[in-house]
Amino acid sequence: MQETFSLVDHPLVQHKLTLMRDKNCPTAHFRQLIREIALLLAYEVTRDLPLAQTEVQTPLETMQAPILAGKKLCFISVLRAGNGLLEGMLDLIPSARVGHIGLYRDPDTLQAVEYYYKVPEDISERQAIVVDPMLATANSLSAAITRLKQDRPVRIKVVCLLAAPEGVAAFGEAHPDVPVFTAALDRELNDHGYILPGLGDAGDRIYGTR
Questions:
Q1: 119: closest CA among 88, 154, 91?
Q2: Which of 6, 16, 68, 106 has the fewest CB atoms within 10 Å around its CB?
Q3: pTM
Q4: Which CATH number fits the domain that encloses residue 81?
């Protein structure tokens, strides 16, 4: 298993994920749950952000207090399902910049095809957190990270809801320097590249398109 792979096993994360797995979970509830889980995952993935000291005048006295140092984060959403995680991340860190990478998976080859890419101009001065709910074959995510690395962010991390062992291995081989944070490591992939037991297609369930 990839050394930079982290399983976020907080009870609230696990509880909410179980509710999302239920095939009878309504679209509106599913959308709310992924937003709530994203906020909790954002807390974990930002645990090591650098801090600086700033002077603050409290109602009683002046003090030196910690504040985030330098340029802040950029959240990069892998379209379209990544937007479901993005909203919860922004709830916690509304000042973060946002980028998007548009990829679709060719149904025959399962390979990623890029159709859109837009990130802040100063991405080379920011840490990038890439969000994509499913780490399945890792083809799309690996392609997204390869493209993002061309713009040289300070650091890159990945946040997903579910991962399959095959995807973790493939991503770790392609990008051993990129940490992955996920709420669950499921059993395997099926013949169509879907995670088992999984929760179905995250994009379809977020947007009610199936």
A1: 154
A2: 106
A3: 0.90
A4: 3.40.50.2020
Domain that holds residue 72: 5-207
Q: Which of 21, 105, 147, 151 is catalytic?
A: 105
Residue closest to 175 by CA, chosen among 147, 133, 151:
147
**CB distance 41 to 159 below 8 Å:** yes
Angle between helices 27-45 and 11-21 (to 10 degrees): 150
Domain count, the chain: 1
Catalytic residue among 201, 205, 209, 210: 201
Q: Is residue 204 annotated as a catalytic residue, yes or no? A: yes
Q: Active site includes 109?
A: yes
Q: Is 64 helix (H, G, I), strand (E, B) or coil?
A: strand
**Which position among 18, 152, 204, 209 bears the catalytic label?**
204
Q: Is 175:145 a contact under the CB 8 Å cutoff? A: yes
Q: 56-104 pLDDT, tens per residue?
A: 999 999 999 999 887 789 999 998 889 999 999 999 999 999 999 998 7
